[in-house]
Design a protein that fits this description.
Helices cover about 35% and strands about 30% of the residues. It folds into five domains: about 250 residues; about 70 residues, no CATH class; about 130 residues, no CATH class; about 70 residues, no CATH class; about 100 residues, Immunoglobulin-like (Sandwich). Helix 1 runs antiparallel to helix 12, helix 2 runs antiparallel to helix 5 and helix 2 runs antiparallel to helix 11. With about 650 residues, it is an alpha+beta fold.
C-alpha cells in the first residue's frame, strides 16, 4: 500500500495545494526582504549615475586646468603651398615675411643598370658613412656613426644587396628602379641636408675595392682623390629661408625655432607671409564642455533626489545626506574669489553665471572678450600656473599642496653633468685590433664600442668617438657629447644631476685616447623656494608643491615665482576627494552593498528554513492523507457489513 500512496489519493485531500498555500504564507518574509532590497538597489544605481556624472565633470574640469587652451595661437600663411605652420602657446602675435629659397634634399645615389634584379653584384662588406663634403674634404658626422654591412657570397644579387642594406637599418634606404635600360640600385640618405651626405667604401672579395666590377660598383667618395662608381642623382642640400630679411639655413624642411613658438614645414620655394594670432576656440570649447558637464550633473542629481507631486513619486536619494554633502562641497567650490589670478576673479567676470534653478549659463561673447583682454588673465583664473621673474627659471608643475602666493628662489648649488676627462692628448691613429676598442659606462649603461681604423685630426676623432658611443647607447635614454682641448678628449653625459656619471673603464683604445682618465659625477640642483623644504633632481627643484627647472648654471638669488591656484584647480581637488576610494560616494555605496549582502544572508537562511518547513508540511499532510484513507476504508467496510446484516435480518423475517 505504501508504494501506491500519493498525497490526496484515497482521501480526496489535495495535499499539494494545501502545502503550496501554506508555503505562500511562510514565504512572506522573503517578500519583505525583496521589498527592503529594492530601494537599496535603486540607491546603488542612482549613486552609479551620480558618480558617472561627477567623472564627466572631473574630465571637463581637468581640460579647463590646462593653461595651453587659454594661450593657444594659430599661424596662417598667405600662400599655403609654400609651407604649413603651427603655433604653440609661446608664439607672439604678429606678421612675418617668409621666402623659401631652397628646400632640403637627401643625398641620393644610383648604380649603373643591371640586366635583372637577380644579377650578381659581388660579395664583401659595405661601409656607409655620413658627413659633409667641403672643399674636397669629407668630415664624418659626430651624431651618426658609420655602419658596415656584410654581403655573403651566397647572397650577391642586386635584390639581395638591397635587402641587406635595408635590414641593417643603417640610416640609408635602398630600392631598385627600372629606368627602361635596366635595373638600378638607388641609395638615399635617411636624413636631408649637406651634413648628412654619404660616403660609401667597400671591402670587395675580388680584392679590388675601387674598380667598377663586383661590390666596388657601390663606392662613392666625392672628396679629393676619392673614387665614385655610384652616380649622384640628388646632391645633399640644405633648406634656405629668409624670415623678415634674415637668411637661415636648415638641414631639413622643418624650422621650429626661427619664429618664436611657430613651427614651419617647408614645401615649395617662393615668398609669402606668416600671420600669428590668438586662437580662442580651444578655450571657448573647453568652457562650453565644462558648463554642459556641470548641468548634466545637476539634471542627474535632481532626477534621483527630487519629488514629483503629480505622481507622488520620490527619487531614490530624496533626503540622502551623502548626496546633500556632495552638492554642498560643489557649491562651496564655486564660491569665493580666485586669489593670485591678477585679473578675472569670479566666474561671472568670464561669462559663466548661475540661473535660479542652479543651472550654469555661458555668455560666449563675454568669455571671448575676456580671452582677448590680457588684463583678464583668463588662463590664470581657470588653470593653476606660475610665472618666474627670471627667464631661466621655468615653472614645470604643481601639486595640490601648492598655495597661491609669490615666493623667492635662491640657488645654492647648480646642477652639473657627469664627465670623464683624459690626462693627455689622444693618439690620432687607430689600428684595427690594436687600439680600436673602448668600454665605458654612461649613466649606469655599460657599452663597448669599436672605432674605425684610420688617421684622424683631433676634430674628426671627436666625431668618430662621439658617434660610436651614441650609436651604442641608442634606445637606452643616455647620450654623450665628446669635446677636445689641445687634443685632450672629454666625454660628458647629456643628463644632469647625481645620476649623471661617465666612467671610461677598459679597452685597447683607453690609454691611447685618454691616458689615465678621471671621472667627475654630476650633482643635483639645490636651493630654496620660499621657506619650504626643497629637493633637487637634476635641474629640477621642488618644494611647497611647486617644481621649477633652473636652466642655467648661476647660483644665488634667482628672483621670485608667483603661483595662482585657478578655479579649475580648486574644483579638481574637490572632485578628486568626492571620487576617491574613501570618498563619500565610495563610503555610501559600500554601506549600501553591506546592507544588500546582509539581506542576501537573511534570504539564504530563510530559504533553507522554508525547505525544512515544506518538508514537514508534506510529511504531516501525507500522514493525514494516509489516516483519512484508512478511516475511509474502515467506514466503507463497516457500511458494507451493516448493509449485509440488514439483508440477513430481512431474509430471516421473510422465512
Amino acid at each position: 500500500m505504501a508504494g501506491l500512496s500519493s498525497p490526496g489519493i484515497g482521501s480526496g485531500l489535495n495535499v499539494s495545494d494545501i502545502v503550496s498555500k501554506l508555503m505562500t504564507v511562510e514565504q512572506q518574509p522573503l517578500v519583505v526582504l525583496t521589498n527592503k532590497e529594492a530601494p537599496l538597489q535603486a540607491q546603488l544605481s542612482a549613486y552609479g549615475t551620480i558618480k558617472g556624472a561627477l567623472a564627466g565633470l572631473r574630465d571637463a574640469t581637468n581640460a579647463l586646468a590646462t593653461p595651453a587652451k587659454f594661450n593657444a595661437s594659430v599661424a596662417r600663411l598667405g600662400d599655403a603651398t609654400i609651407a604649413t605652420a603651427s603655433a604653440s602657446t609661446s608664439a607672439v602675435a604678429g606678421t612675418h615675411t617668409l621666402e623659401v629659397q631652397t628646400l632640403a634634399k637627401a643625398h641620393t645615389l644610383a648604380t649603373t643598370a643591371y640586366a635583372a634584379t637577380s644579377t650578381p653584384v659581388g660579395s664583401g662588406t659595405i661601409t656607409i658613412q655620413f658627413g659633409k663634403y667641403d672643399a674636397g674634404v669629407f668630415t664624418s658626422s659626430a651624431e651618426r656613426a658609420s655602419e658596415t654591412i656584410s654581403i655573403p657570397s651566397g647572397q650577391t644579387s642586386l635584390a639581395s644587396v638591397r635587402d641587406a642594406i635595408n635590414s641593417a637599418d643603417a640610416g640609408v634606404s635602398a630600392s631598385i628602379v627600372n629606368d627602361g635600360t635596366g635595373y638600378r640600385l638607388v641609395l638615399t640618405s635617411g636624413a636631408s641636408g649637406t651634413a648628412n651626405a654619404l660616403r660609401i667604401t667597400v671591402d670587395d672579395d675580388d680584392a679590388n675595392d675601387t674598380d667598377a666590377s663586383g661590390l666596388s660598383a657601390l663606392t662613392f667618395d666625392a672628396s679629393t682623390g676619392g673614387t665614385s662608381r655610384l652616380e649622384e642623382k640628388v646632391a645633399a642640400q640644405d633648406a634656405t629661408l629668409v624670415v623678415d630679411g634674415i637668411t637661415i639655413t636648415k638641414s631639413q624642411n622643418l624650422a621650429a625655432d626661427v619664429i618664436e613658438g611657430v613651427t614651419l614645414t617647408l614645401t615649395a620655394t617662393g615668398s609669402t607671409t606668416v600671420t600669428v594670432a590668438r586662437d580662442t576656440t580651444p578655450a571657448v570649447t573647453a568652457v562650453q564642455t565644462f558648463v554642459k558637464a556641470y548641468n548634466d550633473l545637476q539634471t542627474v542629481a535632481k532626477s534621483v533626489s527630487g519629488y514629483d507631486p503629480a505622481t507622488g513619486q520620490a527619487g531614490s536619494l530624496l533626503g540622502d545626506p551623502a548626496l546633500r554633502g556632495i552638492q554642498s562641497a560643489l557649491r562651496n567650490a564655486f564660491n569665493g574669489l580666485i586669489v593670485g589670478a591678477g585679473g578675472a576673479k569670479t566666474l561671472s567676470s568670464v561669462g559663466v553665471s548661475f540661473e535660479r534653478e542652479g543651472i550654469l549659463t555661458l555668455d560666449t561673447a563675454k568669455l571671448t572678450a575676456a580671452l582677448a583682454d590680457p588684463q583678464s588673465n583668463v588662463s590664470a583664473f581657470f588653470a593653476s600656473g606660475a610665472k618666474a621673474s627670471d627667464s631661466s627659471v621655468k615653472f614645470l608643475a604643481n601639486t595640490r599642496a601648492a598655495l597661491p602666493g609669490t615666493y623667492p628662489i635662491s640657488i645654492t648649488q647648480v646642477a652639473t653633468r657627469g664627465y670623464a676627462a683624459g690626462s693627455a692628448a689622444a693618439a690620432t691613429t687607430i689600428v684595427a685590433g690594436v687600439n680600436d676598442s673602448l668600454t665605458l659606462s654612461v649613466d649606469g649603461k655599460t657599452r663597448t664600442v669599436t672605432l674605425n681604423a684610420g688617421t684622424y685630426t683631433a676634430a674628426t676623432l671627436v666625431s668618430e668617438v662621439q658617434s660610436r658611443i651614441n650609436t651604442a647607447l641608442k634606445g637606452s635614454g643616455a647620450k654623450v657629447a665628446v669635446s677636445q682641448s689641445a687634443g685632450v678628449l672629454t666625454v660628458t653625459s647629456d643628463q644632469y644631476g647625481a645620476d649623471s656619471k661617465v666612467a671610461l673603464t677598459s679597452g685597447s683604445a683607453l690609454a691611447d685616447l685618454f691616458g689615465t682618465p678621471a671621472s667627475t659625477d654630476g650633482v643635483d640642483v639645490a636651493g630654496s623656494i620660499g621657506s619650504f623644504p626643497t629637493a633637487g633632481s637634476g635641474r629640477v627643484l621642488s618644494g611647497g608643491g611647486l617644481a621649477v627647472e633652473i636652466d642655467d648654471g648661476v647660483a644665488g638669488d634667482r628672483g621670485t615665482i608667483s603661483y595662482a591656484s585657478g578655479f579649475a584647480s580648486r574644483l579638481t581637488g574637490v572632485l578628486a576627494d568626492l571620487l576617491e576610494s574613501d570618498g563619500p560616494i565610495a563610503s555610501r555605496t559600500a554601506g549600501i552593498n553591506r546592507s544588500i549582502k546582509d539581506i542576501d544572508r537573511q534570504r539564504d537562511r530563510l530559504s533553507e528554513r522554508l525547505v525544512v518547513i515544506e518538508a514537514r508540511y508534506r510529511a504531516q499532510f501525507s500522514a493525514l492523507d494516509t489516516l483519512i484513507s484508512r478511516l475511509n476504508s474502515t467506514s466503507n467496510f463497516l457500511t458494507q457489513q451493516l448493509a449485509n446484516l440488514a439483508n440477513l435480518s430481512n431474509s430471516s423475517l421473510d422465512k
